[in-house]
Amino acid sequence: MSEDRLIMAGNSQRFDIENGKQIALLVAPVLGFVLAAVAVAARWYTRSVRRVNTLTEDALCLAALAMSFVVVTLVYILVFLCGEGLTSEQIRAHPTRDYNEVKRYWLRMQFALDICWATSIATIQLAFVKFYVRLYETKKLAQTACYISMALIAIWYIWSLVGWINMCHPPGRCELQSKKSCIIIGSLHVFFNAIILFAPLPAIAAVQMSRKKKMSTLIIFLLGCFCTILAVLRIDCAINIFGDVNSDPIGASWWRVCFSPIEIAFGIICCCVPNVSPTREHPSLPTEGTGLRRLKFRTTSGSSSTSNLNPATWVGGPKTQVNAFVTLENGARKMESLEGIKVTKDYQLDRGRI
């Protein structure tokens, strides 16, 4: 009997799923996390195949994924225990929950969510900038700009943490973030996203890429644009679409809570995809055909030869100056041999004395 009462009491403290906004909060973050996990796994798989030295970037992506899981967990807590996705009026109408108590708990969860979100975002941005340091390895000015960007991202992260800590000072008494602080933190975040989005364009424009590579680069760029748009929409204190932050703080925060894990997930994907190898490469052992395929040289009868393929060495006696061009082909042959040599010029050799 006592266990039944505890279960009933626990169920009465939870909010039921009543609308599409709550369903979106439960589904979209999980899907994003799964896609991000696949991208990180593919990146680490590629690392084991290519043996590339990108440990710092790989570790940053893995850390961002771990923090993304915490963000998704906090979203579920906000939905079931804080009524995220409902308006303040709907929460006030709940038969067993006190609105003031819910709001206090909601503020603490918001505080935790913002910290985890900023940690994930800063980690992803640092991974991007570290990649750009390698990309502009020969450009000292660009590398210096990358290191300055790293320092600015770290300053933004620390400053944001200090601002959110002040929200809950003294401990246990959390308040809404001021509009000014919210706009500054959000605007700087959008600014850094834009820098990361456009920074590699000069390097991309300077190289020749296949059509497939261009399409994949375009997709990554569009995903980056999508993340930047989410970063703009996340500034709910300046853009009132689902409600006013002051009169309906829980209702107005829906899209910020929803977009936070999605932005993290797509940021991780954008960071991982350029380093992912589509298939595992199996290096083949060198064969006779390998040499015949690749050997192409121009020589003369009077030059010092390092190969017995020089026609001038085929006969003895006095030799005339003869230019020779030899092409080695395999065509569609399955089994290659020395018969695959094709001489593309007729030689006039002076056999003379033997």
From TrEMBL:
It is found in: Membrane. It is a multi-pass membrane protein. The chain crosses the membrane at residues 23-46, 58-79, 111-133, 145-165, 185-207, 219-242. Keywords: Membrane, Transmembrane, Transmembrane helix. The keyword Magnesium does not apply. InterPro entries: Rhodopsin_dom_fungi, SAT4-like. Residues 42-278 form the Rhodopsin domain. Belongs to the SAT4 family. This is Rhodopsin domain-containing protein.
